[in-house]
Amino acid sequence: MRSLVFxxxxxxxxxxxxxxxxxxxLDDVVHFxxxxxxSPLPPDGPRPPPGTANCLFDETGAPRLPELAPDWGGxxxxxxxxxxxGPACGTGPAAFDADLMRIRTLRITLRVQAGQASYRGTSPxxxxxxxxxxxxxxxxxxQEATFDVALPNLxxxx
Length: 158
Description:
By secondary structure, this protein is mostly beta strands. The protein has strands at residues 2-7, 12-17, 22-27, 29-38, 76-78, 88-89, 96-97, 103-112, 143-149.
């Protein structure tokens, strides 16, 4: 398993793995965030046999997760706390929150700065980490991009 980690102190986006590696992927990152966007409808499967419960359905077949009000087009923004409050599917180290099955899109925001302070101005409006330059014609403002990532196996799901 690999993970992206934002190291704010080093201004780096780092790639870590279960094997213990921790490598810089991108320097001069001054902001990194991920929003989870999911289906407002509870997952419709897997359904257990009649009379049996699982993490998604009770023994009567009723969903354990509520329907949510969409707030992002046809999707709902899932705060990180919603992805760890249960019910849990699976057991032991492989257990995960049932709301993870709602995720359809990751909205990633990344902001990078000029590497040297001598290319950054003093205005906190343009620079997360202001630099030394007072002449606005000589500066390179921070650049921010937001993009959505939808995993191929989730496209077309409600």
